[in-house]
Amino acid sequence: MTIAKTVRLGVAAVAIVTLLGGCITENQTTPPAASSSTAATRSMQAAEEAVARIPGAEFRAARAWDGTTAYVIATLSATDAFSGDPAALIDYSLAQLASQNEVDRGRLVRFSFEAPGQNADTTKALLASLSIDSARYAGGSSLELSNQDLDDRYGTWPAAVPEPPASLITKD
Length: 172
Fold this sequence. Notes:
Elements: H1 2-21, H2 44-52, E1 57-66, E2 69-78, H3 86-99, E3 109-114, H4 120-129, E4 134-136, E5 143-145, H5 147-154
Parallel strand pairs: 2-3
Antiparallel strand pairs: 1-2, 3-5, 4-5
Helix pairs in contact: 2-3, 3-5
């Protein structure tokens, strides 16, 4: 009886170790391998700083989790000091996000645009004008962006570092 009990405990231990081993996942904050479009490492901070050079604009993005699903949460803000085209600002900001390789995009990008006169519906329309599909997340103000549309518009993640559009550059 002791041998049988020992064997059962051993089998149970092996099964538990095997099951727990299946729970180990890749570190989602590890940067993806550099693609042919960009060989150097580019931080999220560099992408955020590029957007911050536009008067009245601020962009923040970071890793987030929905259970075990990794994604990026990104918020673009514009104040009354921003006088450019909102669609161009969204496009430039998402291109900056796509150009960094510090934080992998994960399953999706959850995006919000906070600016005077903006809401989820107007942001959805601006994204549609850029051929980026979006769906409102849980009836709130953020939108989930299609990875395929982001790849189609900006290239495979990480994409090339974009130049600011002339319409967003202020002459001093």
